[in-house]
UniProtKB/TrEMBL annotation:
Pfam families: DNA_pol3_delta2, DNA_pol3_gamma3, DNAX_ATPase_lid. SMART domains: AAA (SM00382). It catalyses: DNA(n) + a 2'-deoxyribonucleoside 5'-triphosphate = DNA(n+1) + diphosphate. Residues 36-178 form the AAA+ ATPase domain. Residues 421-433 have a biased composition (Low complexity). GO terms for molecular function: DNA-directed DNA polymerase activity. It is an enzyme of class 2 (transferase). This is DNA-directed DNA polymerase. It comes from Agathobaculum hominis. The gene is dnaX. Its EC number is 2.7.7.7. Signal peptide: none annotated.
Amino acid sequence: MYQALYRKWRPQTFADVIGQQHVTDTLRAQLQSGRLSHAYLFTGTRGTGKTTCAKILARAVNCEHPVNGDPCNECAACRGILDGSVLDVTEIDAASNNGVDNIRDLRDETRYTPAQVKKRVFIIDEVHMLSIGAFNALLKTLEEPPEHVLFILATTELHKVPATILSRCQRFDFRRIGAEDIARRLLDVAAGEGIELTEGAARLIARLADGAMRDALSMLDRAAAAGAVDEETVTAALGVMGQDDGVHLAEHFKTGDLAAAVTLLEEYYSAGRDLAAVFDQMLGLIRDALLVKTSRTDVSALISPAYTVKTLQGLCDGLAASTLIAWSRIIGDSLDRMRSAANRRVEAELCAVRLCSLGAENYDTLGGRVEALEEKLKNGVPVQVVQTPQSGGMTPPPPRDEDAPPPPGDEDAPPLIDGEPAPQAKPGKPAGPTLTLWPQWARLLDALMGKINVGALTNIKLGAKGAIEDGALVILCEDRMAYILAHKDETLAVIREQAAKLNGGPIKVRVREAGDEIIQENNAKVDELIGHAQELDIEIKTL
């Protein structure tokens, strides 16, 4: 009968356990010195070797010929425990035996001395599933068990275990197994089983396993059903993206090619891949890209083995860190919605739309948006500027219908009757000062190159123009972003300096949003009131 790989290749000695040397070395030292505790608590995420180490420890304490703290697996005690014929070693599933009565039965069994081996060993798996009453029933026995009894508790959720239990056990924390260690183990297992496994496929499985050796072996078992195992086999068998697929999808988001991104998602969907898992993998890619983008040291040991530093650097060209952070926030929000969405495909495609058309609201700060613009300009990525009335842009007048009658002018006015005075025009607001474009504006923009922030200069070029008003240079900004950047003190100081050089002398520089002309009207009543106040020696303050 076929046996699953994770069962067939379960480590039989502490030396075979992968990635938990801090645990295995301590246990072997205790076995060699005879300083064993009466109760152990193994905690850690799934598939990291907790139950495996518990079984090895159960054999090691009863082994007739231990080898440097490891069981020999050849003596009668070791063979009996391995095949399950020794009843003195009991493994209990706390998920299904979590009541007070179950623990009372266990407590009664501890009174009897072992019949075939040195110690009676009770392995309680998923101990956090015990009820409060069961924990209380176990307390006294766990604190002072008979000399011939050893308790080994295992849990994946340490926070659910009462402090009274924790204080009575010697605790060992099992770490997630490194991806490199998992990949090497997979290659060894594949060689032993005669499975053709490529190194790239081993690395991909190791990344997907997320530190769990059992999960990795189960994935290999599933992928090997079709024969030789390469990256394409793994992605097809497990319904996930390959490393090149993730980079290609990110490239489409980077260039804003929505059609290509949605087409790629359609291919994944048709292939039966879970689109939520696809974007979850994208988060891992973004995480690695952020490390490469922001770190000033070598991070090759910190990134996923599925990607190379060179690949990630190519992806990061033209992408600012703020853009990657905005991507991660958008994907995270979409994943939350996908959990309850009636149609995950639609939600995934909407996520692609958001990623391909980032707006100012997607960035944390104004500086983040400016950083993204600078990064695109530095790497030659085209920047699209969309002006809307809401953002302060100028709306062109609607086209005039050629067939429509011309607006009434003076020639269409009715004739005046002799002796009748001409009608007076209605008083209106005085016309504002006329604006004349500054002829040196283009030369000023060239002079500012390299002297002010690249993002500020780009926004000024795209959304502002220079005009002369009452002898002063007025920078009229057509959108709010250009106004904010041009109005900064350090930027304005450089503009004044360069404008004075081009003007041949000092020149006043003002920054204003288009349509924000200030017209002051004379108010006769206010002037009269101010005059009376001055006659009475009342001080007038102008605000």
